[in-house]
What does this fold into?
Amino acid sequence: MYKSKKERLYIKDILPNPAISFPAYYILSQSLLKNELLQQSLIDIHSFEFDNYNAPKSFDEIFNSLSSGLFPIYKEKYAVGLFGGKLMYLESHGWRAMPCTKDIFMLENWLIA
It folds into this structure.
């Protein structure tokens, strides 16, 4: 099976002076590396600028955001995406499945654009 090549997206490349410098990079596929919506979410997370985000009033707003290609923010530190019907969050070594904990069901932990 063909494995797509993954590359590092360094935060310093998209944001010269990040307020939060950890993680310093994210490992992404080439298509997500060029995704401007994901890059904007990462810039917002690392600059700690959430002026354009609101807390959702329902989970429908979160899933509508995911379906439209946006990346909601979870706990002000993770960009979240929907891939193959799975809710995934981005950490430095790539996408990980969201653990189904009590915190995930608390709307105040989410921010949507």
Q: What stands out?
A: The mean pLDDT is 92. The radius of gyration is 14 Å. The longest strand covers residues 78-83.
